[in-house]
Amino acid sequence: MPLQQSLLDGPGDPELAPLTGIRRAPLSATAWIDLLPGWLSGADEVFAHLSESVPWRAERRRMYDGVVAVPRLLSYYREGAPLPHPILTEARAALTAHYGVEFTTAGLCYYRDGRDSVAWHGDRIGRGATEDTHVAILSVGAPRSLHLRPRGGGETLRHPLGHGDLLVMGGDCQRTWDHAIPKTAKPVGPRISIQFRPSGVR
Ligand SMILES: O=C(O)CCC(=O)C(=O)O
Ligand SMILES: [Fe+2]
Predict the structure, then answer these.
(1) Where is the signal peptide, in residue numbers (predicted)?
(2) What are the structural domains, with CATH classification, of the chain?
(3) What is the rounded CA–CA span in Å between residue 39 and residue 22?
(4) Which ligand has the nearest atom to the CA of 138?
């Protein structure tokens, strides 16, 4: 199975490292990202479980004068909805304790291959449009690059997100920066991204 070859974590129960190891990279005076590579170990089983048990949806969106397929599969766990793997419940509790901010919703994306992507955007639907907010991303599966650039234009920063890695955006990052997962022509396996957000942020 080509999927297995892309995962390097080996067997073992899913386990989260302490968040004390997280490193902050300021983006500006008011925006930052926190990074913790390898936050989740034993991520193979998590990837396999989520691939199979999450109700993935293929969405279509109206664009200009046509309707196009959204280039990734989606699933959304609103506030109060049980998450699809116990390690995600644990991850959310750890993030909530570490940041003193309640993460209540989870958006999941499934990038089937390098043609799947998310275009430049900020998570500005709702509260993120006007208030500082945290958005925490746990990545499992094939590594993909998260790109960030200032909204007014400027240099693009590239952060590779691998199997079990955590990246948290904070401050006014959603208002003043955009992020994207660009398509890649390289042969890449599937990736699942889990985004934890506080209430009212999309
Ligand atoms: O796949 C990712 O890690 C990012 C997804 C994202 O930016 C979003 O769904 O808002
Ligand atoms: Fe986003």
Answers:
(1) none
(2) 2-197 (2.60.120.590)
(3) 9
(4) 1
Nearest CA to ligand 1 atom 3: 193
**Contact indicator for 178, 121 with CB cutoff of 8 Å:** yes
Interface predicted TM-score (ipTM) of this complex, two decimals? 0.99
Residues 6+ apart with CB under 8 A from 201: 105, 123, 125, 126, 127, 128, 133, 135, 174
Do 73 and 56 meet the contact criterion of CB atoms below 8 Å apart?
A: yes
Q: How far is the CA of 97 from the centre of ligand 1 (A)?
A: 22
CA 121, 44, 95, 19 torsion-angle sign = negative
Q: What tokens were used for 115?
A: 């043609």
Q: Which residues line ligand 1 (CB under 6 A)?
A: 107, 109, 118, 123, 137, 139, 146, 179, 181, 193, 195
Q: What is the pLDDT of residues 12-54, one digit of tens each?
A: 899 999 999 999 999 999 999 999 999 999 999 999 999 999 9
User: Nearest 10 degrees: CA dihedral of 112, 77, 55, 107?
Assistant: -10
